[in-house]
Amino acid sequence: MSSDDKPRDLEPYKIDVPQEALDDLRDRLKRTRFFDDLDNEEEYYGISTAYLKPLVEYWADGFDWRAQEQRLNAHEQFKVEIDGTPVHFYHVRGKGPNPVPLAVHSGWPWSSGFSLPLIGPLTDPAAHGGDPADSFDVVIPDLPGFGWSTPARGDLNYWKIADIMHKLMTEVLGYDKYAAAGSDYGALVTSALGHKYADSIIGLHYGQDLPPGMFANERFWDLTDGAKIPEDATPELRAGLENFVSTYASHVAVHMLDASTLTHGLNDSPIGMLAWLLRRWKKWSDKRGDFAANFPRDFILTEATTFWVNQAIGSSIRMYRNAVRYPWVPSHDRRPVVEAPAGFTFLLGDAYPPGVNTVEERIAAFENGPTRDSFNVINVNAHMKGGHFVHYENPEAFVGDLRVTFRKLR
């Protein structure tokens, strides 16, 4: 189940951004032409200049990238080439008696930095109040085209990334069998693994219930698939549906329909890229939470700098339309489509599903929903704290649920 030796023929990798790249970024930030953003104090129209300007000024003069770089380099990491594309990943061994190898797949717009808080509790549960028997060998990649896994091929999408991740775990790291976890776009990668490579998968754990084949409908750019709010919807349901659309509609539609058009601006303007990322982080995070407390500015700017210096914004955005251009084709017709056993952690601060306000309602929405039959479900839980960024916003819940899932499978 696990690989006993240090990965062979792998040289440790260290993040070390050239100073000239940081100097160029600072120069661009200091020359920002700020938008005169009238009547947008409440961010009715999107990220406001009033919010963005002090953050950009701090990014240009105050933010210490080298300190963050040191934090990112605190864990052992590597960079390899698989199928013609680079893959950067952290690999941290578990300290329990029989660690389960676990690949953690993040979503958009996340780098591997989003998942680093999981390393301690998962690899060394005894040091975090847990049972050593629950330990994992943790592998945290930047998905190809994201973060430090650049420059990537232009044809990548979730199921092609799944093929790469399988080779990382089996051919590069030498695991016969392994586990996988994922949220957002990483949940699609996880599902593609659980479908095609179920014989190699010990189990799966999810932050969202996304089966393979997503974006295969005729209106692939429209998460509502053209549905209107029912005329008899309760005020609560109507508000929830309106919030769902305002949270996710522009993201999916623009990434699907104008990936490169958008990228030309974001790849050239750090404030433009930051605004686009920030809108997602602010809008998708816990609707009941304190964003400033949960997403400190140094964390935000570390992620933004990671995307900027790697020019990863465009390659990560392209993953959406590539799910349409290169559609997923099932490897078999067995049911459920994702055969590997799976657990789920749902957080109620997300905009989806609309009109759901209690743990019981969230679990029922899944159990009675359209995706339930796609999975071999062995564990489902929901929690009030946290939004869309599941294992970053509520790592305690995610780790606890993940441990329960794999206790059933060890």
Mass-distribution shape: globular
Estimated helix fraction: 40-55%
> What is the strand tally?
8
Oligomer: single chain
For the CA atoms, what is the radius of gyration? 21 Å
Strand line-up in the sheet with most strands: 1-2-4-3-5-6-7-8
Biggest pleated-sheet summary: 8 strands, mixed
Distance, first to last CA = 10 Å
Topology order in helix (H) and strand (E) letters: HHHEEEHEHEHEHHHHHHEHEHH
Runs in which pLDDT lies below 50 for 5 or more consecutive residues are: none
Strand content: 5-15%
Tell me the number of helical segments per DSSP (H or I, 4 or more residues long). 15
Topology diagram in text:
Layout: H1 19-30, H2 49-60, H3 65-72, E1 77-82, E2 85-92, E3 100-105, H4 119-123, E4 136-141, H5 158-172, E5 178-182, H6 185-196, E6 201-206, H7 235-257, H8 259-268, H9 270-284, H10 291-294, H11 297-309, H12 313-325, E7 338-347, H13 359-367, E8 375-383, H14 390-393, H15 395-407
Parallel strand pairs: 3-4, 3-5, 5-6, 6-7, 7-8
Antiparallel strand pairs: 1-2, 2-4
Helix pairs in contact: 1-2, 5-6, 7-12, 8-9, 8-12, 9-11
Protein name: Pimeloyl-ACP methyl ester carboxylesterase
GO molecular function, one term: epoxide hydrolase activity
Family: Belongs to the peptidase S33 family.
